[in-house]
Design goal:
heterodimer, A: 509 residues, alpha+beta, 2 domains, 31% helix, B: 120 residues, N-terminal domain of TfIIb, 21% strand, membrane (chain A)
Chain lengths: 509, 120
Amino acid sequence: MSHQQRRACIAAGAAAAAALLYWYRRRQPPEGATLLEAVLDEEECETLETLLRDLLRNGSSLPGKTYSPVTAPAFKKRNQSRETLQFGAYVDKNRVQNAAVAPLPPALLRVARRLKKLGVVQSVPDACCVNFYGQGQWLPDHVDSKKFERPLVTVSLGSEQCVVFRRRGYLARRIRLPVGSALRLGGDAANDWTHGLPPATRPRISLTFRRLNAETKRHFADETKAIKERRDAKKALKRQQRNKPPKPSVRAERRPEAAPLPSEATDKTPSIELEHVRSVYNAIAPQWHGTRYKAWPRVAKFCLMNCGAGALVADVGCGNGKMADAACRRGAFTIACDTSDALIDIAHTTHKDKRYECLVADGVRLPYRSGAFDVALNIAVLHHLSTAERRVQCIRETLRILKPGGRALFYAWAKEQKNGSENRSGHQFDSTDVLVPFHLREHGPHYNKETARQCPAHAVRDERKNATVLKRYCHVFAEGELRGLVAGAARVDECYYDEGNWAVACTKL
Amino acid sequence: MRLLTHNMLVSNAKGVSEAEGYPLALEVTEHRREETEFDVETTRKTMETVKYDALRGAARAVAIDLPEVYDGDDADLLRKVHEALCDVHVIEGCLVCPKSGRRFPINNGIPNLLLHEDEL
């Protein structure tokens, strides 16, 4: 062998040795990484794999964020993602988050306990991230979040794949992960080396067991507690607001002042009603009529159901006669009355071509025969009577004129006014007996100087609004009050809230 | 005011009972007739409530003669009754309480049965 030949031989040998060394060192796990083979036997692996795939199939029914599907389109396109099940702790893009996830299921807890028994870990892991790699799916190089205690343990199922460790200035390390093995990462391997998985050649499941560090756990617990406290405080506040009287409305006149009540009990009409009801309506009749000419839908429905051809209807307190059309539609004959002759004039003029007759009379002393009518309407009348006796008297009179079996409908303004768009008049009542202002405009389409009535003595001029302010007396009804009054005199068929009023439909027995 | 309304009206003057205050005497100074559609069944049904004697008395005040006895099967009578009940409008006149003599005016077709405060 020549000198040259010998040198070539040595070179080749050295190269071969170097290659062998390289091959060997490439496959040496970095410091702190240990591979334990056959932590789970073949049968255990199969059982666990079946169980986990079952869980994955029902992933969406698992609590909170336990199941994460592949969502990011870019990740999906690059195969850089996989379905995961996370128990005990939630990680998104390698960041630990305080999200609700299921605790370790028993099967995984058994594996976690075995890891402790084998001395792989000091304390039993309470979190596990299960990655389901499909064919071609891979995991980029990363270092696990520092919020997890070291060591981390990854158990492999499904198929044997490789993990690659990299560190600047070091040779990359490629470790194979047989089925049933556990890879323990601690020290440098967990903190200084990155690890990633090349595209899987066959489906694989990895179970990474870890524990959140105490600081993070404490932080999350505090955070959850604070959120719960905030939510509870909000709930309590809402509850409190519901029970509180409504906020003062911007417009003061929508919160009417309390009315002085009559003290003497006589047959005479209390002066408050003369001054604050009858005189007010006589003065405001044209303007009142101008804005209120449509029957309330539920009252109209009651009329359609009960007022047939040949029936006789009494409209007690008819106002401007806005129920006339509804009452007469099916051929009934209606006799309507009101104490305000100005309103009766309007009702008569508007409806004289119908089977609708108007007269001036008091609902507390109806000038009708007993038992003459089939139907009686008493709509928005009772709240203008200032004593309980007079309200009862008006109900009694309304029922007296009905035939036995005849039906009556009562509506009275409710103290409980809803908020928002449902409250059409926009009023809020603090007291049950109130004086509600009415702004009478002495100009505009409803005003006629020739026919205008004199305003009652209490009226005051509001120059700013260019109107005269009159105050209507109202006794607003609390829930159940109207029903209570009617129930003593007739059979209550229905009791409901409608148009800001309490309503009672009843039958005379 | 039509006679059907009159038939339902009773004096509500203080101290007058329903039996004593019915029917109100009708004094007519002006009345008008407006023909309306006649329906036998509706009229017959209305007549179940109407007190015929009171109607007969009131009809006399507007020059309609009704027979002494009401017969619901007599179509001609029903037509006449319908005219009396629904077609005649008393425009001006008076209703008089048979017991107390209180006069309730009818102006522009509207009777006013509201008592004055000193009558209560």
